[in-house]
Specification:
Distance between the termini: 31 Å
Largest sheet: 7 strands, mixed
Helix content: 40-55%
CATH superfamily of the largest domain: Type I PLP-dependent aspartate aminotransferase-like (Major domain)
Radius of gyration: 22 Å
Strand content: 5-15%
Order of helices and strands: EHHEHEHEHEHEEEHHEEHEEHHEH
Shape: globular
Bound molecules: 4'-deoxy-4'-aminopyridoxal-5'-phosphate
Oligomer: single chain
CATH topology of the largest domain: Aspartate Aminotransferase, domain 2
Number of strands: 13
CATH architecture of the largest domain: 3-Layer(aba) Sandwich
CATH class of the largest domain: Alpha Beta
Strand order of the largest sheet: 2-8-7-6-5-3-4
């Protein structure tokens, strides 16, 4: 098998899985219970949370565990809108967000909020002047993804924060950092709110994280009892928190070394694929090397994906969460419907080998020739 879909999800790291199994087996008490089993579980959970807060240099109380990045995005965006309705009803997002953000925006519009979409250039970089123009006294929140999930376009969050705060110091800044964590350095100090997900960094599926600066208040969307955390009440999933903490520790080291290796793989694939007449490479200077997006101008991406799958090679058509639709990110970058209609995303990892890339390229050529021929005969 050649797995080149690491941006959809990652295989769980063995040590992370071990820590999940161990904490499930040896810490069965509810951390909210007063007896010694509960106390033991709570101590383990708190030490895992402390490790995460140390890595990001934030307070433990600023971290809320969620079911994933989708839930973190919901809590952050809807929660801040509901909490700040007196200030206004205006929200700004980019045109390069994950589909979960647009679903939230649709909901917000249905209850009376106004959403503006900030422009970007052909590289995928946010247009700073447009952002400045769009921020108003009633702008509650700006949400801009750190790394785009389809093309890997990376935004300069620190600079974006400065622009936002200069225009309106009350406007909150949220970033979906799901595709950034474990690939590039992330800093929560660049934002007021951030979303993360464990399954993108070789962690377990079913847990994510919302960072919320202590000065920010959100209206909770969920109500319950028995939790130290007001935003996601209920019994905390101790093994998920413990193994997520382990995954974060493992994923945030050697980033430069891993990136250099991945860049060589990515360069090699680009070098090869740019020789094809009917393929466009949707990769700009601000795209991180872990994600490579291409447009198959004459072949349906889905057909190509399934043809690769016959050889146990796995890639994705735009994002796994929006399969079958036109790529909004490629459209936002190139304004070209045809280019955005048949995109493949190839995503690499430090686990990818040169041998896998060579095999991938060989099968790619073979399938491309076969499907191009079929197309001509149609
Ligand atoms: N945001 C981004 C940028 C993503 O890539 C994804 C996963 N495709 C999500 C949010 C959703 O994450 P989760 O699966 O943890 O809900």
């Amino acid at each position: 098998m050649i797995y080149l879909d690491y941006s959809a999800t990652t295989p769980v790291n063995y040590d992370v899985l071990e820590s999940y199994i161990r904490s499930t087996r040896d810490f069965s008490g509810n951390p909210n219970s007063l007896h010694s089993l509960g106390v033991k579980s709570k101590a383990l959970m708190n030490s895992a949370i402390k490790q995460i807060s140390d890595i990001f240099n934030v307070l433990e109380s600023e971290l809320t565990f969620t079911s994933g990045a989708t839930m973190a995005n919901n809590l952050a965006i809807i929660g801040s809108c509901l909490a700040n309705m007196k200030q206004g009803n205006h929200v700004i997002v980019s045109k390069l967000e994950h589909p979960s953000i647009y679903s939230i925006c649709n909901y917000l519009e249905s209850i009376g909020f106004e959403i503006s979409y900030v422009d970007n250039d052909e590289d995928g970089l946010i247009n700073f002047d447009d952002l400045k123009r769009k921020i108003r006294p009633d702008t509650i929140l700006v949400s801009i993804v750190a790394v785009n999930s389809e093309t890997g376009a990376r935004q300069p969050l620190k600079m974006i924060r400065q622009i936002i705060k200069k225009e309106n110091s009350q406007t909150l800044f949220h970033s979906d950092m799901t595709q950034a964590l474990g690939k590039i350095p992330v800093s929560f100090h660049d934002v007021d709110l951030a979303s993360l997900s464990a399954h993108k960094i070789y962690g377990p599926k079913g847990i994510g994280l919302l960072y919320k600066n202590s000065r920010v208040s959100l209206t909770p969307l969920l109500y319950g009892s028995g939790s130290v955390n007001l935003l996601n009440p209920g019994t905390p999933p101790v093994p998920l928190i413990v193994s997520f903490s382990k995954a974060i520790r493992l994923a945030t080291v050697d980033l430069d070394k891993r990136e250099n290796f991945i860049k060589r793989l990515n360069d090699r694939v680009i070098e090869e694929l740019k020789q094809y007449d009917d393929i466009k490479i949707n990769h700009s200077k601000i795209c991180i090397p872990h994600i490579l997006n291409i447009s198959l101008m004459n072949i349906k991406a889905e057909t190509f994906l399934h043809a690769l799958e016959e050889y146990e090679i796995y890639v994705s058509t735009n994002t796994a969460c929006a399969s079958g639709e036109i790529s909004t990110s490629v459209m936002a970058m190139y304004q070209d419907v045809r280019r955005a209609s048949s995109t493949l995303r190839i995503s690499f990892s430090h686990l990818t080998t040169t041998d896998e890339i060579n095999k991938f390229l060989t099968y790619f050529r073979m399938i491309y020739q076969k499907l191009s021929l079929l197309k001509k005969e149609e």
